Amino acid sequence: MDIQADPTLAFTVTFIAGISTSIGAAAAFFVGKKDMAKMALAMSFSAGVMIFVSFMGILPSSMQIISKELPERAELAVYASFFAGAAIAWAIDALVPEHIDAQTIEKCADCPEKKAKATGGKAMKTALMAAIALSIHNFPEGISVFFTTLEDTRSGIAFALAILLHNIPEGIAVALPVYNSTGSKKKAFLWASFSGLAEPAGALIAFFALGWLFTPAITGACMAATGGLMVYIALDELLPMAREHDTQHATIIGVFAGMGLVAGAWLL
């Protein structure tokens, strides 16, 4: 593999993207029913970033990388990898419990203390399954962020930004049921943080154990597959959750605001 960037930088970018679940965990303590409109805006903003980065950053970069090794089949490889990534995301959703949706978050946030204690076991089980699901999602994301940053620092950082924004509501999804069932902010924070640490863990394992496998073609294919995974998450999870609590066209505003942020950052 032809490494063009410092592995330390790539790992740092991956670590920051992964640990952003902690931001969601902290924010969860202040999210109530009246705040769901803000969450809808935040989730649609994240979806906009993910979609824009996938189509305008990740896929063109993967095309360029694969063309170095497979110039005549680059387009086929990119398109096939993109849809394979979406299929992988669908398979993960089908095989593991779904993430806690906005409606569950809203209900848990408003649970009276006695009710929360009575249903604590169920909430803890839900939180555990959510953490497992998120870790499964985050592990390959960490690998992709790491190797994308090694190949193209700008695309890697933009990709990491998209993952960071995506991980914040995921942190809330894990932290809220833990907090409501145990009353422990510390446990809620740690559970959410650990689920995000699957990303730098994936990067380390891939670099030390699998780095020799990542030729330009394989690296580009992984990037394109992650683009498909990101678009799937944005369309299947984030936008439906945002629409459920949409007010005054907040979802579409959030989507284009997220796209605009990335476009503006790239122009600087």
List keywords for this structure.
globular, 12 helices, 268 residues, single chain, mainly alpha
Number of helical runs? 12
* End-to-end Cα distance: 30 Å
The run of helices and strands is HHHHHHHHHHHH
Shape: globular
In which range does the helix fraction lie? over 70%
User: In what range is the share of β-strand residues?
Assistant: under 5%
Query: What gyration radius follows from the Cα positions, in whole Å?
Result: 18 Å
Stretches where pLDDT is under 50 for at least 5 consecutive residues are 98-106, 112-120
Largest sheet report: none
Average residue pLDDT: 75
Number of distinct beta strands:
0
Whole-number count of domains: 1
What class, by secondary structure content?
mainly alpha
How would you describe this structure to a colleague?
With 268 residues, the protein is mainly α. The chain has one domain (7-267). Helix content is 83%, strand content 0%. It contains twelve helices and no strands. The chain has helices at 7-19, 21-28, 36-67, 74-95, 102-109, 113-118, 120-151, 153-182, 185-196, 198-209, 216-244, 250-267. Helix 3 packs antiparallel against helix 11 and helix 4 (74-95) crosses helix 11. The two termini are 30 Å apart. Mean pLDDT is 75; it is low at 98-106 and 112-120.
